[in-house]
Amino acid sequence: MSTISFEAPRGMRDFYPEDMVWRNRIFDAWRDAAEHFGFQNYDACVVESLELLQRKSGEEVSEQIYAFEDKSGRKLALRPEMTPTLARMVAAKQKRLPFPIKWYTMAQCFRYERMTRGRKREHDQWNMDIIGSQEVLCEAEILGAAVYAMRAMGMPDEAWRIHVSSRALLGELLAVSGIAEAQHPAVFIALDKRGKISDEEIAALLCSEGLDDGAIEKTFRLLNVTSLEEATALAGENSPAIQNLKALFTIAESMGYAHLLMFDIAVIRGLSYYTGIVFEAFDAQRKFRAIFGGGRYDSLLALVGGQPTPAVGMGFGDVVVGEVLREILGEDAPIAREGYCIGYMTAAERSAAVCLATRLRTEKNRVDLSLVAQKPKHFFGKAGNSNARFAIFLGPDDVASGKVQVKDLQTRESQEINL
User: Fold this and answer.
1) Which helix (H) or strand (E) holds 369?
2) pLDDT average per 10 residues of sequence, the chain (419 residues)
3) Which fold would CATH assign to domain 17-329?
4) pTM for this structure?
């Protein structure tokens, strides 16, 4: 018989306890941020209708994800993201929901594609969406929650930035440049590939969509706009897109994170359903892929068969942020010592150790109770490598005296307590 590989399937991940420390650091920050900002939790099935995904992203989506037929011939897929599922769920109860709604989820997603640094074929993603309001405060709230989560993970403000633009603004500037509105979606998709393929290849894509050399030159020239002031000079002060962007920066100032925002007209987001403000977060050195991204998508619900409803959302994967945190904070950053390790020398002390562990657990402490009797050297060696803050070892003399030493594994100091 051939040897079975002990590796996870290509692109998938296993999480050993030391990996779960990092994962829990990220998940706890996500959940805490969403709850602090008043978002309600939801979830859905991991298998989705292929037709729904194709309606949102096009036929080519079946080549990029895990699509299959079940035993009844239904065309299904493992979800590549949560937004189409959210749209389906909202459309199903659209007349009964108390809009605007603020929902979040933490979902495992699958996408069969070429792997690069920061991209797996499976990842967990935090999604936050506000549906039913056109107010730019929606974008500000979602970005505020994302900032809260990043800070909760320990990410210093100087280590990252949120790049902000507007699909509506770029559409206005393309129109001013004489590029027909019908060609805008193709231009967005082509420009979103900048940095992934050469400008010559992007120009070829634009040419294939019917843009002449003059229009292509004007398109690239727009990407040289480096500030909101320059964009305002081109679009005009009365531009609705400009007004929305300025409002976002003003609200962000009040919420304490405006210094993390930077206008970047090159942020486009490739998916065609985005309609307004879009954003992506990157580490300050731009060594990694986007940490999170999102934007306004006012037409998606109508696309899946619901009533037209304004919406804005964000997707925040765990892979890239995990790599960024490790690089910036160091591998030992997530280790926070708390709770107790309790050990005992012989079976005669086991009952006293169990009683002490039970008492400490009743007092809401974390307690790792040794399962076998052992020598002090072995116990303290294991306790020192654990995440416990305190270590207690019971020997015959401790049980006889009714007192035991509690050792602080950080300060190395000890104090005596009663058994």
Assistant:
1) strand 367-369
2) 86 92 95 98 96 71 83 95 93 95 97 82 97 97 98 96 96 86 80 80 85 84 89 93 97 98 90 88 95 93 88 97 94 82 97 98 97 97 94 97 96 95
3) BirA Bifunctional Protein; domain 2 (3.30.930)
4) 0.89
